[in-house]
Design a protein that fits this description.
Elements: H1 4-11, H2 16-63, H3 67-78, E1 94-102, E2 105-115, E3 119-128, H4 131-150, E4 156-157, E5 160-165, H5 168-176, E6 180-185, E7 188-191
Parallel strand pairs: 3-4, 3-5, 5-6
Antiparallel strand pairs: 1-2, 2-3, 6-7
Helix pairs in contact: 2-3
Length: about 200
C-alpha cells in the first residue's frame, strides 16, 4: 500500500486532461477484453454446434436412409472394433469418431479413431469401398499426422478402411497402399487376410 507521501508524489504533474486520458485508455482496454471474451464464447458455441451436427449425422446414418448400412456400423461399434486388431499386435484401448480442428476450421474428420499410447489408427467406413476412397483416406491420414505433429504427439499412425462391399481389386489396392481392410463376415466384421509380403504403412512423427 502506498504511503501518503508516495501518493502525493505520484499525483504530481497530473492534470484533468491526463486523468481523462487514463480513464479513456482503461475503458478502451475493458472494451477490448469484452470483445475477446465474446469471440471466445462464439468460437466455443460453433464447436458445440458442429459436435451436435456430427452426432445428428451419425444417428441419421445408423437409423435413417440406409438402414442395413446403419446396422452394420452399429455392429462394428458394439463389437468394439479395436478388439479386431488384438490378434495382429495392436492393443487399442479406446475408439470413436474424431475431428481435428485448427483455428475453428475442421482439418480432418475420422469415422473411427482407435488409439493407445503408441499407435493411433484412423478408420474410414463406407457402404461400398472404391479406389478413390482409399486415396482420400491416405490424404486424410497425412492431415492427421500434421495435426499430431503440431501437438507434439509422437504416436505412430496406421490406417484402415472398412466397408460392407469391398471389391477384390479395391481390397488389393488398399493393401498395396499399406492399409488394413475390414470386411463383413456374417453378422460381424473381420480384418481381411493380408497377402504375402504385406507391410503396413506407418506415418511417423
Amino acid at each position: 500500500m502506498m504511503t501518503a507521501a508516495e501518493a502525493a508524489e505520484a499525483a504530481k504533474g497530473l492534470t484533468f486532461e491526463k486523468v481523462w486520458m487514463m480513464m479513456q485508455e482503461t475503458d478502451r482496454q475493458m472494451q477490448e477484453t469484452d470483445r475477446q471474451m465474446r469471440e471466445l464464447s462464439q468460437a466455443a458455441d460453433r464447436r458445440q454446434e458442429e459436435a451436435a451436427k456430427q452426432i445428428k449425422e451419425l444417428s441419421k446414418n445408423i437409423g435413417g436412409l440406409n438402414n442395413s448400412f446403419g446396422k452394420w456400423v452399429e455392429e462394428m461399434v458394439s463389437a468394439k472394433l479395436w478388439e479386431k486388431f488384438k490378434a495382429i499386435g495392436y492393443t487399442f484401448t479406446q475408439g470413436g469418431p474424431r475431428k481435428f480442428w485448427e483455428q475453428d476450421r475442421t482439418i480432418a474428420q475420422v469415422d473411427m479413431f482407435l488409439e493407445n499410447g503408441d499407435y493411433a489408427m484412423p478408420v474410414e467406413i463406407k457402404s461400398e469401398l472404391t479406389q478413390e476412397d482409399i486415396d482420400e483416406h491416405i490424404e486424410r491420414i497425412e492431415k492427421v499426422r500434421k495435426q499430431l505433429d503440431k501437438r507434439g504427439d509422437q504416436r505412430k499412425l496406421v490406417g484402415a478402411v472398412a466397408a460392407m462391399v469391398v471389391p477384390e481389386h479395391v481390397r488389393e489396392y488398399a493393401q498395396k497402399r499399406g492399409l488394413y481392410v475390414l470386411v463383413q463376415s456374417g453378422d460381424s466384421v473381420i480384418v481381411a487376410e493380408a497377402p504375402q509380403g504385406f507391410k503396413v504403412r506407418e506415418w511417423c512423427a
